[in-house]
Amino acid sequence: MSAPIQGKPAVVLLSGGMDSATAAAIAKAEGFSLFGLTVDYGQRNRWELEAASRLAQFLQMQEHRIIRLELGGLLVSALTGHVPVPKDRRPTEIGQGIPVTYVPARNTILLALALGYAEVVGAADIFLGVHALDYSGYPDCRPEFLQAFEHLANLATKAAVEGQLRFRIHAPLLGCTKAEIIRRGVALGLDYRLSCSCYDPTPDGLPCGRCDACVLRRRGFQQAGLEDPLPYQTPLL
After folding, report:
1. Which residue has the higher pLDDT, 119 or 74?
2. If DSSP states are collapsed to H, E and C, what string results for the chain?
3. What pLDDT is stored for residue 1 in this prediction?
């Protein structure tokens, strides 16, 4: 039996990475009772699903659901198929153009699932961890997209049409750099050892240290003046 809900319910899209974990920690600090949603969409990094479970437990979520939605055969991407993950790119190269790690319409699909889940549990608030470095490269991380989806949410649901809920999409990290995200998470007591950011970890889950996600994470910790608690396959140069 679930514990009684403390605070207003909110659905959090929880990937297992540091950004979604920080967004969840912010939601918790704001007094929301968290309902985590993690989607196994066929991503090559299977370790992030375990990371999501660890983070959900650490954040004492009211409920955490992992659902399987096989998109790999349909939505071709470096994260779902055999397209090589870019490695060793300079930070100035990352975010220039739409990278091959873009999964077609992924955030539209994930937010649609989160919206349905939110309507079921009576949550008007949906949190996700997109931020400035994401929306410079991924079209479904832009502020305009989030605003448009919020408008859609309030047109497309029974709860909104009947006036029971007014849905809000929260992206509390939208204007943040990685260093700012890390400092904020640390201030909230978040344990980043539990997270998994790498696009292409080793078979035993060790982050590669060379993909865009690893490069940005490691640089973020450097700029924040903090040590990344994760070990990496490739030493930091």
Report:
1. 119
2. CCCCCCCCEEEEECCCCHHHHHHHHHHHHCCCEEEEEEEECCCCCCHHHHHHHHHHHHCCCCEEEEEECCCCCCCCCCCCCCCCCCECCCCCCCCCCCCCCCCCCHHHHHHHHHHHHHHHHCCCEEECCCCHHHHCCCHHHCHHHHHHHHHHHHHHCHHHHCCCCCCEEECCCCCCCHHHHHHHHHHCCCCHHHCCCCCCCCCCCCCCCCEHHHHHHHHHHHHHCCCCCCCCCCCCC
3. 37
